[in-house]
Amino acid sequence: MSETQNKIKEKINELRKLHSELDMEIAKIVKVIPIDQVMLQRIKKKKLKLKDEISKLSSHILPDIIA
Question: pTM, whole model, 2 decimals?
Fold first, then answer.
């Protein structure tokens, strides 16, 4: 495996960790009444951006498979 692929995998792992941390943060916010909708939306947006970046990076290390 190339050094570039290793760097991408490290970045993916880092992003997955951040994604999980945002999941925990969302769970904490949802437990609080009243729910801070603005904060919840911001965190969900961050989480979605991380997921998109993870997918994008993953596509760089996975070979294209023609069905």
Answer: 0.74
